[in-house]
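Case study 2.
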Amino acid sequence: MSFAAYKMMHWPTGIDNCASGFITHTPADFVPQIPLLQADDLDAELAPPPPSGIGPIPNLIITAANVLEIYTVRVHQDAAAATSTRNLTEAKRMDGVSGVSLELVCHYRLHGNVESMNVLSSGASDSSRKRDSVILAFKDAKISVMEFDESIHGLRVSSMHCFEAPEWLYLKRGRESFARGPLIKVDPQGRCGGVLVYDIQMIILKASQAGSGLVGDEDTTDSGGAVSARIESSYIINLRDLEMKHVKDFIFVHGYIEPVLVILHEREPTWAGRLTWKHHTCMISALSISTSTQQHPLIWSATNLPHDAYKLLAVPSPIGGVLVICANTIHYHSQLTSCMLALNSYAAPLDPSQEMPRSSFIVELDAAHATWLSNDVALLSTKNGELLLLTLVYDGRVVQRLDLSKSKASVLTSGIATLGSSLFFLGSRLGDSLLVQYSSGSGLSNSSSGLKEEVGDIDGDGHMAKRIRMSSIDSLQDITSEELSLYVSTPNNTESAQKSFSFAVRDSLINIGPLKDFSYGLRINADANATGIAKQSNYELVCCSGHGKNGVLSVLRQSIRPEIITEVELQGSKGIWTVYYKNTRGHNVDSSKMAAGDDEYHAYLIISLETRTMVLETGDVLTEVTENVEYYVQGRTVAAGNLFGRRRVVQVYERGARVLDGSFMTQDLNLGAHNSEPEPGSESPTVSSVSIADPYVLLKMTDGSIRLLVGDPSTCTVSVTTPAVFESSKRTVAACTLYHDKGPEPWLRKASTDAWLSTGIGEAIDGGQQDQDDIYCVVCYENNNLEIFDIPNFNSVFSVDKFASGKTHLVDTYMREPVVKEVMTSQGRKETTQTMKVVELAMQRWSGLHSRPFLFGILNDGTILCYHAYIYEGSEGTSKIDDFVSAQDSSGLSSTSRLRNLRFARKTLDSYTREETPEGTTCQRITIFHNISGHQGFFLSGSRPTWVMLFRERIRVHPQLCDGSIIAFTVLHNVNCNHGLIYLTSQGILKICQLPSGSSYDNYWPVQKVPLKGTPHQVTYFSERNLYPLIVSVPVQKPLNQVLSSLVDQEVNHQIENQNLSPEDMHRTYAVEEFEVRILEPDRSGGPWQTRATIAMQTSENALTVRVVTLFNTTTKENETLLAIGTAYVQGEDVAARGRVLLFSFGRNNENPQNLVTEVYSKEQKGAISALASLQGHLLIASGPKIILHNWNGTELNGVAFYDVPPLYVVSLNIVKNFILIGDIHKSIYFLSWKEQGAQLNLLAKDFGSLDCYATEFLIDGSTLSLVVADEQKNVQIFYYAPKMSESWKGQKLLSRAEFHTGSHVTKFMRLQMLSTSSDKTNRFALLFGTLDGSIGCIAPLDELTFRRLQSLQKKLVDAVPHVAGLNPKSFRKFLSNGKAHRPGPDSIVDCELLCHYEMLPLEEQLEIAHQIGTTRSQILTNLNDLSLGTSFL
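Prediction:
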């Protein structure tokens, strides 16, 4: 392997930062203008008017490593709920709201990890028309300010600030490495922001004050849209000049005329040995920031804060001031008063004579996160996931004391954000993130403190509605009657002290991080006979993720494998359809009520064969009724579906169509004769593709003409028409589809500029009017122009030129001024845009109150274009358009009826594989479904079938590899198959299936979570019995004296010195992690996994590694498979390190679970046993600072060779043949070999650099062996052993082959064989890796030709692609040495994260770039395709 590709397969999910702000809409969008038409406000599809109880709700912005996402909060309220009195016993309803969900607005993958994020508020009131902006900070000192641009429905950069160039070098003050990246805080009124970079430099960003003068807010810079807050200028304050050295945190406080910045800093640090004398070392200083004069006078300060203060929290108006959060105390300081609260016995008073107010329970607050629920109640989340409520008891602006009370237990958080007045979001890196609704009742009446269930205790499997629970949490559960008298003495705020909050979990975002370890095992329903790519979907990835009570085993499967109910062989079948039929149906049933009761079973299954059609009845059993029905069965069927509210079935065959009432034909249409005089001898055209939207059927003929079957609901008959637009013109149609815009308020009407159309007459006349259905026809011509017509009039309402080129945004051509295109010179080109054709179109809006339509197009080279519609009301330019239309458009179309506000934004589809459509074949590949096991989306058939599902307006792509090519697909809902599916494989097998129920599909890969209620550390796989041995640690509360006695060396027999512990301290409990090895077995039916056996560790013994090893028994001369466990006793620094090696054998019989594992060997060793591996029948053990090789005689391990190699501690141990690779915690990697004759371990070479290893592995490419290591600075390096080269110091030194910055901590590599594609090498392995951010990727070897081609493409794309937030991918992927000396290695890894942007470029640019680097577009796409196929391991 000289060259490799770095490819992400599952993007990060662990949320690092979360914030809230009005990014995509303004607070004013929530104020209903006219009561009748409130839903049709300007941004109606972005911001629905919520119920009165909730008020304006901002957006949620989250970042996970380098992923940035913005969500809109959607509130679902019941009409009944708002009027009826709030009933707390009903679980789901609170404040008249029945549910809240998050909906994705935009998703970006940045070329850099977001270190810190904040929202620059526009500083305005609830009726403001100004929007907020997002400020992002990246290492080392890059700041980007992003605002939402309605015209592209996405973020754009409004300013960038970089303090890294050589002229800013003095800011570092000679230092190279810094404890943390930049930290952003923003003035609550949006006047300025502060960014702390290089630990000591404060950058003040001054916000522009546009529209804040006497003129109203009308002078907007954008066309008609709202203005976002922007940054005008910046300057630097050097905090050293103000004698602040160790800055811990800073914040802007409320209630001052100028922005006031409060900084928490330590004057001179202390250390553990001095704590008893020097413990109050921190102080806060308040600076008044004047951005105009760049002055910052000190206005007040407070000293003598504890050394463990680490966080500031600004108290909202009207109280003002700042809370200082320390590990053991909470302090409140303002210019007027100060007060404090001690949380445990470690809180030391400054003056021992003082009495400190103490909280009623003991808690430690290190690593807490906080937000405000109201102006005097803060919500704190502790390090073990408890939620605490901190109430400020105040009089006027004087805070008298602080009250802390326990609330619920929840997920371990990495950040909290309050959204509006009744929601907060708990972002987490260690578990699923939660959106929680809260409601504050005051008084003690509804105290149901007995309900102790956890907020965070929802299973992460997405079926939220079943598990939404709520209970009233009473913040005063500990108060006794004599304490209550305190409240009476301060009569003006009895309420504030007695707030009780009730919480309800409303939504959750799945997170599979941090991935500590994973193993690769067979699925339950694996197919033993599968080969090639289908064989890959036999496997699943079982990952250790989460921590503490959020600890789970995540089972990831990249491809979906449906659960088969039954299968039948049917040779030569071409298509399948299911239709409904119910003869008792009334005449004009309201279609909306029917859609709601969508539990109707299918009646018939129609199967089209080469020369005939089969019809089956889908009752309890499938029975063929072909002879007894009047369907057209003599030839093949092109399509079938329901018309007239499911009262009739329409069946279209090649030369005609039939309408059937159940099994009886009511009408037969012949399509051949309808054409204008056919030329003699020519075949009359037949139907090639069909689209059905009740009551219309659109037929595309083989000659590119169009017929429309128009249904008459009163008589249930259809008539054939040819639209006049197509009769007159000679343009041939390449693809067409019908789009049914249904619902109480058709979405596309909002895009029209006609006032009466866009307001929706229905609501104005009578509110309870039934659904309106608009039907549109989407057509793409052979010249790749796309047009949308309304039906049945066939007026063109929207048109786009060159649809096939895949532009990032589609805008109606009449909206633009005519531009003179410069003609691109294409002579000498190998490819032109002319060869690209659209072969299939689909437009669909799935159910959901605020859903917007998607438009899909498939090109003949397999590219799938996916567009999402949005509305942009541009005000300028209308007059130009009118002149342009009247001059140009002779057909007399009025331009007013056009959907001129409609736009489409292109979306990426992650993991689909392209496949070319051969000339002349017409096969419809997209099948839309609305309910398969509760999911909606479409299925893409073909040689690499793919599920495309829609969750929260976001597309999730999941391939299905297990059956190879799939010809046809349809949904089936009947007695035996509840909301299931049927598909036909190319081998002619019809399979009736259901989606696996345990998995959650709203993730990059489908995931099933197995809760462990403990922290998983390492997992391994025993393939013979399909078992997963796994190390789990559970915190157990133990008395302090037990804990102390375990820290004493038993042999030396010291007495504990406990003279400095008081008697009540001795009875305190202390949480100790207790380790065990659990052996889990997957459940056959896909349910929860079973624990088959548990191996407990001794007290204070930590299990460090578990492996299934194969050892050669020297007595019986046979190989044995054993479970090996390495442990260490953790007893503090006074006791010498020891560890144990344990070997267990697996029992033979499955019946008796007690005998599943039996211990066959256990021995204590010096040093911790941190890694184990089997090497050619021997057991290699890393114990402390040496590695020892043992052989096994059935009862004993005997050492045969050793090497004193890892200086400190082995992190990972890998073996290939007789080569050993060792990663050390600080001393990089060592490469050894084992020689059987002479029994010796030899050091071949090592890396002389100092590298903190996280994971190592061998990379095999044909006959080349490379060594890969991931380090603590989030880099990956590839080394090789070349003793003949002079720079390797006669072979002692490993040479660098490639280096790369991944941006995440890689914790585990796994070597998996790649599928052989076109290249000739077969013995090729890629490395799959998991990271602490919850991302999964792979490093795959490339041959030189492919590498050179992709590398030159990568260099072009650095400039050709507009990068989000202005980040440069080149600097992101540079090896990060963090100040250590490092000689740069060769640049031999290509970054597929950048290469994947190539497909998203418009076609003309793709061809141009390919031409510039001397290759073709199809060649590049083939290379990228081969790479994704070769690495689809799951």
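The mean pLDDT is 84.
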